[in-house]
Each structure stands twice: as structure tokens, then as C-alpha cells.
Amino acid sequence: MWTRVIMVLSAVLVGCALQRGSLAPPEDEAARTNLRNSGIKLYAARCASCHGDATQGAWAPRLTHKLLTPGLLADAVARRCRSVIGRPIGVDLTAPQALAIHMYIREW
């Protein structure tokens, strides 16, 4: 139980630290649109095979995904997507990629 609590707290702290740093969304509307559009492409390339469109129910982006910070999204990908089927599946996100996907999910 304590291990799970420590993991959640560390994920929250890391996510908050990343949110304050380079993972803040851009202020400029054009830059936000470009970032969201690249997030659409990244989501299609990296995530859609498991997390398809809304017809797939639980696998599609949900409210809980919208509440994640970019740092928590990257952490969730690092922890869950690599181990959910018991073997690595090659889903690694850089901080800018996590932010782009996050921007897309937030507006989905």
C-alpha cells in the first residue's frame, strides 16, 4: 500500500514540477493551434492503436485523461503503456510530444 502511495505522490510532484517548467502551453493562439494539430498526428501515430476513437469506449480519451498534466501524461505513458500488455510496446514520449498530445486530449 505504501508503495502505491509513494508512487502517486512522486508522480504528482514530478508532474507539477514539469508543468511549471518547459511543459507550459504556449500563450500565442497560433502556437497553441499548431501544437494541438501536432498532438492529433502524434496521438494517431502513437496512441490510437490502443486508444482508438470514441467507439472503443474505455480506450478512448476520457475526462480523467483531460485532467492529467503533461508531466503526468508522460509519466502514465512511461508506466502503463510500456507494461500494460506485459512487454515493451515502444511508446516513449518526449516532453514536447507529451505536451502536444495533452493539448489534443484537453480539447477532444
Question: What is the topological layout?
Answer:
Layout: H1 2-20, H2 29-47, H3 63-67, H4 70-81, H5 95-107
Helix pairs in contact: 1-4, 2-5, 4-5
Structure description:
This protein is mainly α. It has one domain. The chain has five helices and no strands. Helix 1 packs across helix 4 and helix 4 packs across helix 5. The termini are far apart. About 6% of the residues have low confidence.
Give the structure's gist in a few sentences.
By secondary structure, the chain is mostly helical. Helices cover 63% and strands 0% of the residues. It is globular, with a radius of gyration of 14 Å.
Helical segment count: 5
* Average pLDDT figure: 67
Please trace the helix and strand order, writing H or E for each element: HHHHH
Quaternary status of these chains? Answer: single chain
Helix content: 55-70%
SS-based class: mainly alpha
Q: What's the total count of β strands?
A: 0
Shape: globular
Question: What's the N-to-C terminus distance?
Answer: 34 Å
Low-confidence sequence ranges: 16-21
From the alpha carbons, calculate the radius of gyration and give it in angstroms.
14 Å
**In what range is the share of β-strand residues?**
under 5%
Number of domains: 1
Instruction: Characterize the main sheet.
Output: none
Structure characteristics:
single chain; 108 residues; mainly alpha; 63% helix; globular
